Amino acid sequence: MSVAGRISSVTPQFHHRSSISTSSTTTTAILPLRHHKTPANHTSLRCSNSSFINPIRLSPITTTKPPTRRPTYIQSSLEAGVGLMGTKLGMMTYFDSTGKVVPVTVIGFREGNIVTQVKTDETDGYNAVQIGYRRVRDKKLTKPEMGHLEKSGIIPLRHLQEFRLQSVDGFEPNQKLALEELFKEGDLVDVSGTTIGKGFQGGIKRHNFKRGLMTHGSKSHRALGSIGAGTTPGRVYKGKKMPGQMGGTKTKIRKLKIVKIDSDLKVVMIKGAVPGKPGNLLRIAPAKIVGKNIPKN
Hints:
mainly beta; 8% helix; disordered N terminus; Ribosomal_uL3; Transl_B-barrel_sf; 3-stranded antiparallel sheet; Double Stranded RNA Binding Domain; rRNA binding; rRNA-binding; Elongation Factor Tu (Ef-tu), domain 3; RNA-binding
């Protein structure tokens, strides 16, 4: 008997069941096999719609649903209360009642600090009060900015900032905020602003690195030096302190004490230094004390 005859007389025993199953009640597709003779007079096995000899059972392919997009949430820190915006005027020496010298920063307030918008959970998804500061001419603002302010009948204001609160009860648009009503002498405040930009600086000035020897043949005075091993890891780690742009970033100084409030001059004296140079915009808010004026979570 020829080889082809032997192959045709033997019933192929191919039983393949997919290991992936979707459910116990899932139906399977049956694909039969048939004998097919090639030009070389050899018998091969191919799938066919007839001649059910030894069916191969295949489970259907199921597709998963695309992941649904998560809802967006407002991620911002809560304030201990509504604050004000002011202008840094400079620093001076202040003598308290006991004659002690206190270095203070003088902050003045121009026309403004008006409530321009009140946001609630129902309308915006969070509670916040928007404050406007420093009156300017109409042509200094864009049409969308003017339309936002004219909606509540407010004068043109250059700066707008929000104070996110737990509750916005008692605030309404076009409400003026007075310094004496929000702060008292002796209160602690958080002052934030933009620091003075100093351009590209080296590691000694930017990160307070120690310089090298200036004598005895030293050739490394203000250079940075080695920044990492050669073989392991063979690269420089991210966040390495190196020369770069210094200053010009937003910074917050926490828990500064209010020394003096002058209602006639519309200025406040705060102990210590605050970010920026004279004329810089500052944001003054009540100091946050976890567990006392803001929740722990």
